From TrEMBL, chain A:
The keyword Thylakoid does not apply. One of its GO terms (cellular component) is RNA polymerase II, core complex. This is DNA-directed RNA polymerase RpoA/D/Rpb3-type domain-containing protein. PROSITE patterns: RNA_POL_D_30KD. It comes from the Eukaryota. HAMAP family: RNApol_arch_Rpo3. GO terms for molecular function: DNA binding; DNA-directed RNA polymerase activity; protein dimerization activity. InterPro entries: DNA-dir_RNA_pol_30-40kDasu_CS, DNA-dir_RNA_pol_insert, DNA-dir_RNA_pol_RpoA/D/Rpb3, RBP11-like, RNAP_Rpo3/Rpb3/RPAC1, RNApol_insert_sf, Rpo3/RPB3_RNA_Pol_subunit.
TrEMBL record, chain B:
It comes from Nepenthes gracilis (Slender pitcher plant). Gene3D superfamilies: 2.40.50.150, 3.90.1100.10, DNA-directed RNA polymerase, subunit 2, domain 6, RNA polymerase alpha subunit dimerisation domain, RNA polymerase Rpb2, domain 2. DNA-dependent RNA polymerase catalyzes the transcription of DNA into RNA using the four ribonucleoside triphosphates as substrates. Residues 181-354, 442-505, 1045-1153 form the RNA polymerase Rpb2 domain. Residues 13-393 form the RNA polymerase beta subunit protrusion domain. InterPro entries: DNA-dir_RNA_pol_su2, DNA-dir_RNAP_su2_dom, DNA-dir_RNAP_su2_hyb_sf, RNA_pol_bsu_CS, RNA_pol_bsu_protrusion, RNA_pol_Rpb2_2, RNA_pol_Rpb2_2_sf, RNA_pol_Rpb2_3. Residues 559-616 form the DNA-directed RNA polymerase I subunit RPA2 domain. Residues 673-1043 form the DNA-directed RNA polymerase subunit 2 hybrid-binding domain. It catalyses: RNA(n) + a ribonucleoside 5'-triphosphate = RNA(n+1) + diphosphate. This is DNA-directed RNA polymerase subunit beta. One of its GO terms (molecular function) is zinc ion binding.
Length: 317, 1161
């Protein structure tokens, strides 16, 4: 073990970044690292979500569990989540999870008085902490127009009422999907496309066209001037092998060679809005580092306890 | 959104139940009253007769407002109306005195004419806490919804030739051939008349009275019916034979007919019954003992009564018509014997109709009313004869008082009980094929199941036990009327069928909702037929027969004959008249033209206007009247019609037989449920059958009025979705009101091995986000009046005990809080017994927690609360072991909730499947439509549109004349849709392992498929036990999941253990873990029963503190041998001792020979 270093220096290049979307390249590393990053982003970056609901009055058409479940799935702004405590680890409240260090309290009071159906939405949730609020999906913050009223929780008709207290806590997506900050995280291997130009020249324009069209995504195109086949967007390639099959069907196998680069990944991250997509990546790296630290620590302590590998697993997990 | 939807398409599916009941209320009851024979009491000659029955809506009053269906369901009472009728008394031909009698609370069908909710619009229905699309058609009895299950019967008023070996054993000389006709009276009661062929050439007419069959020579009946000569009878019977047509097409008569006619007439001579009156007297003499009320009448009067009441009752008192019908039947019988025509198939839908709710109730009500009248007569005559009291029949008050001993209210009670249990409580069979199983509970597990109860028809309980399977066969005659797909597999397979979505049942009502005047209709049909060249039969009997002329029968009455060359034109003309809205010919007239053939079915023109027939619409492509070319046809005529498919082809017909009609749409042959399977024409047919079963077991959006329902058990899907891929029927029948599943992203791959053998992996995160979440609602009704004995019935109330702390989770009124969580064995209500001063509580059963969903109290009893409904809600979110299914008969059990991050993901979209199934599910089952659905749904998602998946869509030629375009295949259509959105043509995608992040080496088929959650859940089924209750007698573990019993280790399991040689394990299972017992056996006498334990008296010792007390030593002792010398301990199953005891009770002594050591003999 000693002396040999497998250390590499991965590079990240951000291509596109919005609040809820980020696309970046990850180079010079393994698929295991890329996948670890993906898994952590989905399941282990902490967020805050409603975890306990005390219903005072519920005369709506939906039953208590249904409403509680819906409340749980509402994304809350969770920038504070990394620094918050898990309720189970909180010593300020002896684990009952209702103190300010590990929880945020919400109140909801809605009653329909008019003849119009009343939509109870996430905006009706009143938070005790202004940093933890239901995610506002409107384009410009503060725009409280009627067409953007947040996520509907339940609809009330005349005389129906909903009154409840909810406690939001920190958690991770592994425990329940409601704590997952990621809507979608995926990565693809960067493809490397080599067109055999000599073989390509043996094709007529018609054949070229049909070959280019055989790919469901727009990877290749024909230069209008030179009538040469060019790669316009290699990343559009989905490894569906359609063009290779087509080339074989045309009797020109080897027309194109496509490899997946083993060490380059293109990540797409979409966030639920709980935290910014870019922050999600940073947090994921942070969580990953913590996990590695745990592994490293346990390596030192391997001799100390008798659990061996199991002990390391227990601490790391 | 439309303000008020009319749910016409759906209503049509339930209509036949309602129309049938409506007719009963509107005119059926009155008809029954009119035809019921008055009873006479002899003393001062008087009559009692029923008149003017009225079934009223319950009158609302201040004290007691009337009940609406919802209130009946909640309070577990019946939805009824008061049945009042006038009973007429007449003394010595004096004036008729009418007295109103209350016949009790008569069950009311929902949405019938006398229902409060008739014509209620959705808004009103919602106001009354019903579904906005409540269709009615069922009864509410004790809070349960019960529906009359239609039963298939022999077609009424059609003489059917049959061959049955059981006829032969009837009596000496009978052959196996007969012609049978089920004659139905105006009041819907029926008498079946059979004409048997005797091997000597004669024939007998047989009919049933009071469970006994009576047989009469056909000649006697003919002569008794009409005053006629032997010659006339001879000519009538032999007219169908003509030398000229011998061997010609359609010649049914043979030379032998004349011989047989002679035999029939000779029989009469042999009995010296030569004249009309002699024959009538003969019948009267023969039948007088079985005709009640006619004991003192002359023979001829009795004879007339027999002919009126039992022979061809559908023809009333017209004896000439009856005579003509006998002649027709004899000719048909002879033709059957001579094999110039084939027997009719009893199992074919051609010769069948249905027994409906109104008809069933009418028959039963009539029988019960007659019973009541008869009993009343007995009571009154007993009262007169007793003479102990001064009873005067002339005093109505006294008569009423006397009749109170035989309360009229029991009539409605009897009807209610019949609907409650489905059982007839009568002496005779009422000419019905069965005595039980007429009604079923209309379960609202989901809407499809509910709907299917109304569309089901049963073949009859008598066939369920029959060993022959020919009745279960799907016959071509059922085409278009019964669904070939929608029948359960297993015991009722082929017996319980479902009507197709286009099939209707003819009713008593015309299209304007007025009761049809059958008399007028028949008259006009006759006049039309005469205009078309028919010779009416009444003036003179026809002297020729087929093939020259064909008999014309209208509802079982011979109305004449028509020359065979004109018949086709006549039929065509009739069909045109059917289409016309202005003609008197009803649009559901069945024109059963059986053409001439070489030894085929017996020819004739059979017209039917009767109700209870199956009908379905087809397009007439020859005629069109006022733009209407939709003709309603029945199964009888369908067999002889040329109906083409609407695909524009000729269907393989030859040119001389062009299609005259066309199917409206190929999906018309499928039931509603079968029509919901997308692209079912691409599936292997058994899979479609399985889907029909599973659709009815799906946990779905069960009811929109769920909050107001008090069903014993209701399943409810929390997060239903509308399917992306749907058939046209889905939209037509508004299934979006009651969606049944979820569009799950399904990947077809073998991942992790947890998807082997039809198991499926669910994505844990998907489930956590709400996929397939469900609840079970369970209602407990607590009625303190019914609790316990009668002694302290008035003294119980709901109250919480002040002392008992265990019930303090309840409210002080003894009832639970709404929203309260209860755990197994928690009390959910507390009852205070005022007499004893004790409180008791009801405990939650089962093994899972429940939440109190709602508590309803019955405030009828003003003083104290006596009746409550408490509804519990059991959350049932998917767990391992729950059952799911796609819409293609592909069911599977959830084997793991797999973490989202470990699921494979798509590189391009990042999607993880909700559900993984194994590819092995496809090759042998060939559910291609499921693959198509996946591709289509994927395309639909990308396009943002629903995809139409109507089966057989390519078998319809496009209305806009699009024949020119290439008949592109479905797959290429769907594939190109995917291509245009940058996806693979075949619906496959490249997935990456969620665990390693590496590409999976093959492309994975993935796409959304509509999945249903089935109601079979582990939480209801798991059974586990280590130790527990034992059976008292055998000391073996008890059975039954509810009582905490074990699972039987049966004989086959034992065999398997033996085959493995696992003797020790076997011993453990069957002995040690079961009824292990050490018995004391007396080796001297060999008995195990005579030994007993005797506690030896210890010598008196003083107890010393601190020292343990010496145990009293026990010794076994044999009472038979009076010694304990030979006592041995032997291990044995306890049942062995029980066996010995049982044998001893039978005076059999069992001895054991006990030796020591295993190999020692």
């Amino acid at each position: 073990m000693e002396g040999v270093s497998y250390q590499r220096y991965p590079r990240v290049k951000i291509r596109e970044m919005r609040d809820d979307y980020v696309k970046f390249e990850l180079r010079d590393t393994d698929s295991s690292v890329a996948n670890a990053l993906r898994r952590v982003m989905i399941a282990e970056v902490p967020t805050i979500a409603i975890d306990l609901v005390e219903i005072e009055v519920n005369s709506s058409v939906l039953n208590d569990e249904f409403i509680a479940h819906r409340l749980g799935l509402i994304p809350l702004t969770s920038d504070r989540a990394m620094s918050m405590r898990f309720s189970r680890d909180c010593d300020a409240c002896d684990g009952d999870g209702q103190c300010e260090y590990c929880s945020v309290e919400f109140h909801l009071r809605a009653r329909c008085i008019g003849d119009q159906t009343l939509d109870v939405t996430s905006k009706d949730l009143i938070s005790s902490d202004h940093t933890v609020t239901p995610v506002d999906f409107s384009d410009s913050p503060g725009d409280d127009s009627s067409d953007n009223r947040g996520i509907i929780i339940v609809k009330l008709r005349r005389g129906q009422e909903l009154r409840l207290r909810a406690i939001a806590r920190k958690g991770i997506g592994k425990d329940h999907a409601k704590w997952s900050p990621a809507a979608t995280v995926t990565f693809m291997y960067e493809p490397e496309i080599h067109i055999n130009e000599d073989l390509m020249e043996t094709l007529s324009l018609e054949e070229k066209k049909s070959w280019v069209d055989s790919s469901p995504t727009k990877v290749f195109d024909i230069d209008p001037n030179t009538h040469q086949v060019v790669v316009v967007d290699p990343e559009a390639y989905t490894y569906d092998d359609e063009v290779i099959k087509k080339a074989e069907a045309m009797g020109k196998s080897g027309l194109v060679e496509i490899y997946a680069k083993e060490d380059s990944f293109i990540f797409t991250v979409e966030s639920t809005g709980a935290i910014k997509a870019s922050q999600l990546v940073f947090n994921a790296i942070e969580v990953l580092k913590q996990k590695l630290d745990a592994v490293r620590l346990s390596e030192d302590a391997v001799e100390a306890d008798d659990f061996g590998e199991l002990g390391a697993h227990m601490r790391g997990g | 959104m439309a303000a008020v939807r009319d749910y016409k398409e759906l209503k049509d599916l339930f209509q036949h139940h309602i129309e049938s009941y409506d007719h009963l209320i509107e005119s059926g009851l009155e008809t029954i009253m009119n035809v019921i024979k008055p009873v006479e009491i002899n003393d001062p000659f008087s009559k009692i007769k029923l008149r003017n029955i009225l079934c009223l809506k319950e009158q609302a009053s201040k004290q007691r407002p009337f009940l609406f269906p919802d209130e009946c369901r909640q309070a577990k009472v019946s939805y009824t109306g008061k049945l009042v009728a006038d009973v007429c008394f007449q003394y010595n031909d004096g004036a008729v005195i009418r007295e109103k009698f209350n016949f009790g609370q008569f069950p009311v069908m929902l949405k019938s004419k006398i229902c409060h909710l008739r014509d209620a619009d959705p808004q009103k229905l919602v106001f009354h806490k019903e579904e906005p699309m409540e269709m009615g058609g069922y009864f509410i009895l004790n809070g349960l919804e019960r529906v009359v299950r239609p039963i298939i019967m022999q077609k009424r008023n059609y003489p059917m030739s049959m061959v049955r070996s059981s006829f032969r054993v009837r009596r000496e000389g009978y052959s196996d051939k007969a012609v049978s006709i089920r004659c139905v009276r105006e009041d819907q009661s029926a008498v079946t008349v059979r004409l048997y062929y005797l091997s000597n050439g004669s024939a007998r007419i047989g009919f049933w009275i009071e469970g006994r069959e009576f047989l009469l020579p056909v000649g006697v009946v003919m002569k008794a019916l009409v005053d006629t000569t032997d010659h006339e009878i001879y000519v009538a019977l032999t007219c169908s034979y003509n030398e000229k047509y011998k061997g010609a097409k359609g010649a049914v008569g043979t030379q032998l007919g004349g011989e047989r006619a002679k035999i029939i007439l000779d029989e009469l001579h042999g009995m010296s019954l030569l004249t009309h009156s002699r024959c009538l007297d003969h019948i009267g003499e023969y039948f007088r003992p079985v005709m009640p009320g006619l004991e003192n009448e002359s023979y001829s009067v009795v004879g007339d009564a027999v002919l009126n009441n039992f022979v061809f009752v559908h023809l009333g008192t017209n004896n000439r018509d009856k005579f003509n019908l006998v002649v027709f039947m004899v000719q048909k019988l002879f033709s059957l014997v001579d094999q110039t025509s084939v027997p009719d198939n009893q199992d074919a839908l051609q010769n069948q109709e249905v027994l409906q709710a109104g008809q069933l109730i009418a028959i039963y009500l009539k029988a019960k009313l007659e019973e009541w009248l008869e009993k009343s007569r007995h009571l009154l005559s007993d009262e007169i004869n007793s003479q102990s009291k001064s009873f005067s029949l002339s005093s109505l008050a006294e008569v009423r008082k006397c009749l109170d001993k035989n309360p009229a209210k029991q009539i409605s009670t009897a009807i209610s009980n019949m609907l409650k249990t489905g059982r007839l409580a009568t002496q005779s069979s009422l000419d019905l094929p069965q005595k039980a199983g007429f009604t079923v509970q209309a379960e609202r597990l989901n809407f499809l199941r509910f709907l299917s109860h109304f569309r089901a028809v049963h073949r009859g309980a008598s066939f369920a036990g029959a060993r022959t399977t020919s009745v279960r066969k799907l016959l071509p005659e059922a085409w278009g009327f019964l669904c070939p797909v929608h029948t359960p597999d297993g015991v009722p397979c082929g017996l319980l069928n479902h009507l197709t979505c286009t099939c209707r049942i003819t009713s008593f009502f015309d299209s304007h909702g007025n009761i049809k005047d059958f008399f007028k209709i028949r008259l006009s049909i006759i006049s039309v037929m005469v205009g078309l060249g028919m010779t009416p039969s009444l003036p003179k009997l026809e002297t020729t027969g087929p093939p020259e002329v064909l008999s014309v029968l209208l509802d079982g009455r011979v109305i004449g004959s028509i020359p065979s060359r004109e018949v086709e034109d006549a039929v065509s003309h009739l069909r045109r008249l059917k289409l016309s809205a202005t003609s008197v010919i009803p649009n559901d007239l069945e024109v059963g033209y059986v053409p001439l053939s070489f030894g085929g079915a017996y020819p004739g023109l059979f017209l039917f206007t009767s109700p209870s027939r199956f009908i379905r619409p087809v397009r007439n492509i020859i005629h069109s009247v006022d733009g209407n070319n939709i003709e309603l046809i029945g199964p009888f005529e369908q067999v002889y019609m040329e109906i083409g498919c609407a695909d524009g082809g000729d269907g393989g017909r030859r040119e001389n037989l062009p299609a005259t009609h066309e199917e409206l749409h190929p999906t018309g042959i499928l039931s509603v449920v079968a029509n919901l399977t997308p692209w079912s024409n691409h599936n292997q047919s058994p899979r479609n059958m399985y889907q029909c079963q599973m659709a009815k077991q799906t946990v779905a959006f069960s009811s929109q009025a769920l909050n107001y329902r008090a069903d014993q058990k209701a399943y409810h899907l929390q997060t239903p979705q509308s399917p992306i891929v749907r058939t046209s029927a889905y939209t037509k029948y508004l299934m979006d009101e009651y969606p049944t599943g979820t569009n799950a992203i399904v990947a077809v791959l073998a991942y992790t091995g947890y998807d082997m053998e039809d198991a499926m992996i669910l994505n844990k995160s998907s489930v956590e986000r709400g996929m397939c979440h469900a609840q079970i609602y369970q209602t407990e009704t607590i009625d303190l009046n019914e609790e316990g004995g009668r002694s302290d019935c008035e003294s119980k109330t709901f109250r919480r005990s002040t002392i008992d702390r265990s019930t303090h989770s309840l409210d002080f009124d003894g009832l639970p809080f709404v929203g309260q969580m209860l755990h197994p064995a928690d009390p959910f209500c507390s009852i205070y017994n005022e007499v004893k001063g004790t409180t008791s509580s009801k405990k939650l059963k089962g093994s899972e927690p429940a939440i109190v969903d709602y508590v309803a109290i019955d405030g009828k009893n003003k003083k104290q609360l006596q009746k409550v409904n408490i509804r519990f809600r059991h959350p049932r979110n998917p767990i391992i072991g729950d059952k799911f299914s796609s819409r293609h008969g592909q069911k599977g059990v959830c084997s793991r909730l797999w973490p989202d991050i470990d699921m494979p993901f798509s590189g391009s979209t990042g999607m993880r499947p909700d559900l993984i199934i194994n590819p092995h599910a496809f090759p042998s089952r060939m559910t291609i439509a499921m693959l198509l659905e996946s591709i289509a749904a994927k395309g639909g998602c990308l396009l943002g549109k629903f995809v139409d998946a109507t089966p057989f869509a390519s078998s319809m030629n496009k209305p806009d004349g699009e024949q020119g375009s290439e008949p592109s295949s479905l797959v290429s259509e769907l594939g190109s849709m995917l291509i245009s959105h940058g996806f693979n043509y075949c619906g496959v995608e490249v997935l990456y392992s969620g665990v390693y992040g590496t590409e999976l080496k093959c492309e994975i088929f993935i796409g959304p498929v509509y999945y249903q959650r089935l109601r079979h859940m582990v939480s209801d089924k798991f059974q586990v036990r280590s130790t527990g209750t034992l059976d008292q007698v055998t000391r073996q573990p008890i059975k039954g999941r509810k009582r905490g019993g074990g699972i039987r280790f049966g004989e086959m399991e034992r065999d398997a253990m033996l085959a493995h040689g696992a003797a020790y394990l076997l011993h453990d299972r069957l002995h040690k873990s079961s009824d292990y017992h050490i018995a004391d056996v007396c080796s001297l006498c060999g008995s195990i029963l005579t030994t007993s334990i005797i506690e030896r008296r210890m010598p008196a010792t003083r107890e010393i503190a601190g020292l343990p007390l010496r145990r009293a030593s026990k010794t076994a002792f044999c009472h038979a041998c009076q010694t304990s010398k030979g006592i041995e301990n032997v291990a044995m199953p306890y049942v062995f001792r029980y066996l010995a005891a049982e044998l001893a009770a039978m005076n059999i002594k069992m001895t054991l020979q006990v030796t020591s050591g295993a190999g020692d003999r």
